[in-house]
Amino acid sequence: xxxxxxxxxVAPMEARVQTALPPEGGWAYEPKWDGFRALAWGGADPRLDxxxxxxxxxxxxxxxxxxxxxxxxxxxxGEVVVVIDGELAFDALQQRIHPADxxxxxxxxxxxxxxxxxxxxxxxxxxxxxxxxERRRRELTExxxxxxxxxxxxxxxxxxxxxERWFDAFEAAGCDGIVAKGLDGRYESGxxxxxxxxxxxxxxxxxxxxxxxxxxxxxxxxxxGLFDDGQLHFIGxxxxxxxxxxxxxxxxxxxxxxxxxxxxxxxxxRRPGEPSRWTGDxxxxxVGIRPELVCEVSYDQLTGDRxxxxxxxxxxxxxxxxxxxxxxxxxxxxGPAFEDVVxx
Length: 344
Description:
By secondary structure, the protein is α+β, with helices and mostly antiparallel strands. The chain is built from six helices and 20 strands. The chain is elongated.
């Protein structure tokens, strides 16, 4: 018997983005890891469920022995990660979500996933969701002592100054921010009951094209690029504009148009519109423009040489030469390796 005190699946507790960590006193601070959020269920019928409460174990068969380590009646909240050369590799993690079993099993051998535990919902068949985090963390630490790799325990501190150091020092290991949890807070499934502060940096980018809005009379998104060896690499997009701004942008960009599929992006580099298993039937058409306009955008995360998420437009940079906007602008953090940060 699995012995869980509640039935799966369960929505994980989530966090609300803040601009600063809450003041010291009554809070625990932990690294926010760059992986797939998951709930691990131990027992005779082990499970690994995603943030959206979908089964993950099919895509990570190498984690079955790790789940088998969990005693019956235990439910752990954590992160599925892939570690390559001491850093979390989100690209490699994404490649695991694939329909072909043969591909999944090959990648499971080549880039095996690992698990980082950071909360405990149940232990020995006891429902701990109503208990304060301080107690849940204590019991998680005790339970982790009986677990072996690929299980890891995330570090936790009640000292705000330490958390602020972690914010920068652990970034190279795959920490993309800090999460704050109330020491007396219960586990609130599906609620944004935690706080998180994420990294955010700015970079000057060249606009190499745009996509039309679905209404057709305004810009939907700007396509951003950076130069390297004379080629403009597509690195992401910017789309957070008000309707009036979108209309003005279209008037501004049309005189620079070079036609669909052209523009300033290089021919031997990543370009907009390349299909993937994530885009499906989405319209990927775009209009190229001469690479003459520069804007400053802010971003949170990088995946390789591209922005993970949509960027935020900050301002135009008419004083900046497009040729000066290079991949060298992207900051690569330095610091300890992942295995030097977590408890294994």
